[in-house]
Amino acid sequence: MEREGVVEGIKSIELNGPLSFNSYQDKVLEASPVSELPDTELTIDVPVDTDTLNRRDMIVYTLHKQPSLGATDLIDFLANAFDCDKETIKNDINELKFIPTYQQHKARVNKAITLKNQRIIHIRSQGKKAINEAMDSSIHFDCDTILDLSLRYKLKPRHIYQEIMRYKRISTQVAINKEQHKFLPVIRALIKCTKLNLRY
């Protein structure tokens, strides 16, 4: 029923005047910390060029991300972002009033958000692994090292600090030793933590 309300909101868009897009704000989005649109039930494949698909994806995403944005501001923003005339954006909005078209773009936006989140999680996990390996090799964390890790793995300096503190805890090292089925995991962890805490 929420999806039907969103679609009805699209149908009510008045392109010639300011309006509020509050009707596009799903309750699911308000409760969730992740900027992700609810799943759709139906998609269709319409032969449309890539630029048009991208514009319409952006319209759907923007309406959910900024529900209070006025129609004029939305059209100006998209026309500038995609270097096209305002009539093109208005035509895109009119096409999105057709339920299957709206669902298609909603599904595309969902997929893009999911893939982006998965990439970020993977890159950051690789960053944590790199920090742990650096600590095992007694590498000094200076400004250049921290900047390199931040840029390469999309980590903020506080994330790097938190991982350093986590890795040198006794509980972390005991858990690692147990996962690797090492002999005397607690004693090994105590020895390693002592070295790590002396170094870091």
Task: Characterize this entry briefly.
With about 200 residues, the chain is mostly helical.
Descriptors:
200 residues; single chain; 10 helices; mainly alpha; 69% helix; 2 domains
The general outline is elongated
Largest β sheet strand count, sense and barrel closure:
none
Beta-strand portion reads under 5%
Distance between the termini: 55 Å
What integer value in Å does the Rg equal?
24 Å
Secondary-structure class: mainly alpha
Order of helices and strands: HHHHHHHHHH
Output the number of helix runs. Answer: 10
Number of strands: 0
Low-pLDDT stretches: 1-35, 39-44
Helix content: 55-70%
On the 0 to 100 scale, the average pLDDT is 79
How many domain units? 2
Task: Characterise this structure.
There is one protein chain. The chain is mainly alpha-helical and 200 residues long. The chain has two domains: 2-117, no CATH class; 121-199, no CATH class. It is built from ten helices and no strands. The protein has helices at 2-11, 27-31, 50-65, 71-81, 86-96, 99-136, 143-153, 157-167, 170-179, 185-199. The radius of gyration is 24 Å and the shape is elongated. The relative contact order is 0.09.
